[in-house]
Amino acid sequence: MARPSYSRKAVLDMIPREQAGYFEVPGAHLYTVLHTAADPLARVLLVGPFAWERHSSYVPWVRWARYLAEKGVECLRYDYRGIGESTGKFDHLSFQDWAEDVQLLAGWLDSLAPEAPLALHGLEMGALLASQAFRAGIGDALLMWAPPDNANQALRPALTRRVAVDNMFRYGDQRKGVEDYIRRLETEPMEIEGYQWSGRLWQESFDLELPADMRDGRKMATDCARPFRTVQLDKSVEPLIKGSRYVAMNPDLTELFADNFEWIAGALAVPSGGQNGCGR
Amino acid sequence: MVAAAKTVEATKTRELLAVATHGICLRGTYHRVQTQYLVQHGWELQSRENESPRIGVLFLNSGGDPRSASGDSAVHWADSFARSGYPSFRFDLPGLGDSDGELPEKWQDFFQLVNSGHYASFVSSLTKILMDRYQLSGVVVAGHCAGSVSAIYAAASSRNIQGVVVLDPYFFREEDERPAIRKGLSHLVTRNKVAGQLSKVYGGVKKVSMLVKGNKLPNNANMPLLRCWNQVASAGVPILVLYTQQARPRAGEFDYFRYLQSLPGGAGRMVLQFIEGANHSFADDAGREAVRRFTEEWLEASFWLAAPERYRSLAARREERWPMRAAR
Lengths: 280, 328
Hints:
The structure holds two protein chains of two kinds.
Chain A lengths: L7 H7 L3 E8 L2 E8 L6 E6 L3 H20 L2 E6 L16 H18 L5 E6 L1 H11 L5 E5 L5 H17 L10 H10 L2 E3 L2 E3 L1 H6 L23 E4 L22 H16 L11
Parallel strand pairs in A: 3-4, 3-5, 5-6, 6-9
Antiparallel strand pairs in A: 1-2, 2-4, 7-8
Helix pairs in contact in A: 3-4
Chain B lengths: L5 E4 L4 E8 L2 E8 L3 H6 L4 H7 L3 E5 L13 H11 L4 E4 L15 H9 L4 H15 L3 E7 L1 H12 L3 E7 L12 H10 L3 H21 L9 H12 L4 E5 L12 H7 L7 E5 L10 H19 L5 H13 L7
Parallel strand pairs in B: 4-5, 4-6, 6-7, 7-8, 8-9
Antiparallel strand pairs in B: 1-2, 2-3, 3-5
Helix pairs in contact in B: 3-11, 5-6, 6-9
């Protein structure tokens, strides 16, 4: 029987542009969405914002993934273990588990088309996790948006918001400070913005740091030939990063997207691959 | 306008769905009824699966949050309802979460869309698709805040929606921008004991003023929404309202819940439950647990105890095993 023949375009049209699925990791399934591109010129692993930040930045983060795919960059976004659509119990997890997620997914994404270069892109807490993986030799380029100096800087605002809410309509001695909550956290888990924080999470957050040489985004890495970039974001891109104005829900970020796409395209055009002692 | 759903099956308990409707793709998650749980608890699985009134629960986005909701509470509730025998679904409405579609640039414009019932037709189509695909006898739509507005509009336009659960619903159109001096005073009240007492006095004065003026709807009341509510309630559709301190009318504020109950047929099968200690997100420990418990009790009371004899006997057996509180 003759096989039906389809044009390449028709074949591509049959493949969903956004393929959602679950990726198995130890003890859980990660929710993943692969934004496909025809003949991708590169791939990007998007390491998104953490837990409560995920909710406010979701819309622009998805828009960024779609923008990249339209430009021919295939990208994978996902939810951290125990967060969002992924399975797993948040209060049983640690930064080590979330770092492992990055490594496993980067390996998988890379295996889909080893010939295409791979970039890691992290937002806020995701930037810290991506920087760790990059430092371990994963990826050909690293893009970081609004990385904190350490993970504790990302946790603290959420704790501060909880304290502020609890202190509403409390007066005088009834009011408690952030330090009181931190002491309590050392002895018992605490619900912050819908997630159960453990004392361990808080303690370990001081250890997950942005490498010192990556804090200045204008510098290129000197220990290897792989490029990285740090972009500090201000409140004008709210809700991509959490603000307080509650005005824009879907702002026009074309300028930010175009600038960073240009950088990715340029960075990945630089030859790489095992010649620089960085593991690829 | 409506196309078949595509699924990705991965975990034992969840499935990812993509549904084409109104020319766009909506994406969601299906939480399967966990049959193992039913077997473990001594249920006759076949009876429960084949004879029961198979009611699905569909969660809508709360405001602009993705479908997992604040603190991923919708995931927790959907898992829990699926364990209790209700196939549960969480979907992103157009432009939100993973779904396709346009979204306004500003929150204010988004709320205008919500408050005018823009999302009702999408929810209505979704319920139809889910009923066909999963052989459901009906769907209960659950919404929080803005999601509750869409749930009510949709229920008025679809006979497939056989129940509504609303968390902290609101019934006004866009709020006017508050003058800076009022914002400042509100801030002061939360920090200063004397200002707090003065605020109570002010509330009392407003309350007296409202009594004098009568229970008149405020100028910014969302009349089309109130009409839809009344239509749904009058038709005998069960409605569960769970609300926190934030949705509770303060002294001197118009009491929409009381107003709706007072309309002819308005009370219908409406159950109103205040959740003590929860905040507006319902993602805190108190809110999350209360929503799970009250909704499960209400689902049982509304769709099992009211079912034909052969279902009632099953429900009675379950009642013997796990006595539950009567829904209020």
